[in-house]
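User: structure tokens for this one?
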Amino acid sequence: MHSILFAILLGAAAGCQAPATAPTQAAVPAASPAPQQPARDAVPQVAPPADAAREAVKEPAKEALREPAKPKQSECKFLCPESVDLTALVEAPPKPASAEQAKDEAILLWLQDRRTREDESRAWRSLSFDLTWFDEALDARLDTTWYPVLFKTFNEVRNDVSLLMLDLPESFKRERPHTNPAILPCLPREDAITVGGKVTLANGYPCGPALRATVFAALLSNLFEDRKDALLERAREVGFARTLGGVNYPSDVRAAEQLGTALARQIIAGDAWAKRKVELQDELAAIAQLRERRPKPVEPEPATDASKTTTTKPQTGNGSPK
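Assistant:
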């Protein structure tokens, strides 16, 4: 009897303890692997999209380095590159080893042998070319603070010309003169330029500084017609400095002057230029007033009739002819 009761008590005790240990053992495997498994699976699933996104960002950057962005019509104010046919406005450069190329090189060598320190200094001054280059030709001092619309206008013109030159035809590509070891420039060599993140060989045809100077002079002549000759002569000084300095061939400069004249003619014929001239009226009037108030140079008085006829008679004496 006692043994039966003892067995019943042991069974009851075992039944009471089983539920206490079972949940503990079941919770461990359920709690431990469950949160860890998704974390391990998530790594390979998330990484590929991130890499793909990085590559997607890099690809346009690579394309930008390979090819400069094409000029957009909205970026231009007075000239639209898509409407300008450069091959119709200027001829292609002389071919290598041609008679024209040999003549270009001979002129540069001739100038190189004869240029002086003063010539070189004058050529260096042309490197700072901007609108103020024409102060003397206009007989006025141009300042961006006084004439902001005028400076804004010519900065936009400069940008239009630069965008246009990005789209030069392949037939215009020409090496710089210093590829001939006999030609020693006295101005900084322009071996390469960076456009749109892309480094390319600096094309010398047409001559960029001479082109901008010609366009500027032609447009200023449209605003100040009485100073046309002085403005064009001042622009030619920029082109001559490039050949004197040995960084552009004479034909580079001739092409720039030819193209610059044609581009300026297109700008002047456009509606945008006509509207801008109206906006410039106040500043142009102010420049004209300042020029009128400037003291005029004093011209020497013409000789009188008495001074023309007065002569000194030779003195006679011993040994003098009678």
